[in-house]
Design a protein that fits this description.
about 160 residues, alpha+beta, Nucleoside Triphosphate Pyrophosphohydrolase, four-stranded mixed sheet, three-stranded antiparallel sheet, 5 helices
């Protein structure tokens, strides 16, 4: 029996109070940068569980008490190069957005099967570097989500 990916996933934007965002370069698509992402492993796995698992697997970070459910979902067309991972005829995925805010950039332990390297970038630069429009939009929404990020933006303009 073939096991297909569930077309429901999470996107977790990890960012600092100062407005820096963690991005990782995909191992299977060098040059493509993203936040933490991943699909539900089984239908009984809750979205918060999926988000915590993916952050731990991809970064080595523990999100205890810091994971924010943004209550935002996007539907996107799955890139043709990855459609074989899904059941025949599945072309779209539902992505649920979460965030993790940190006081400052933290060291990351990458899973080398998934990512080649990581960067902490100012949120505007991070958004520009993302290959995914949903990831870009999530990062661009940070000023609306965090007063600390908004304060940082205002101070930089003065």
């Amino acid at each position: 029996m073939t096991s297909y990916k569930i077309p429901e996933s999470v996107l977790v934007v990890i960012y600092t109070r100062g407005g820096e965002v963690l991005l990782m370069e995909r191992a299977d698509a060098p040059g493509w940068w993203q936040s933490v992402t991943g699909s539900r492993e089984h239908l009984e796995e809750g979205l918060g569980e999926t988000a915590r698992r993916e952050v731990a697997e991809e970064t080595g970070m523990n999100t205890a008490g810091r994971l924010e459910n943004w209550h935002q979902s996007r539907v996107y067309e799955i890139f043709p190069r990855w459609r074989a991972r899904y059941a025949p005829g599945v072309t779209h995925n539902v992505e649920h957005q979460f965030g993790v805010v940190l006081a400052a950039p933290a060291p990351v332990v990458l899973n080398p099967r998934e990512h080649l390297r990581y960067l902490w970038l100012p949120w505007q630069e991070a958004a520009e570097r993302c290959f995914s429009w949903t990831n870009r939009e999530a990062i661009l929404s940070l000023p609306e989500r965090s007063m600390n990020v908004v304060d940082s933006i205002v101070l930089k303009k003065i």
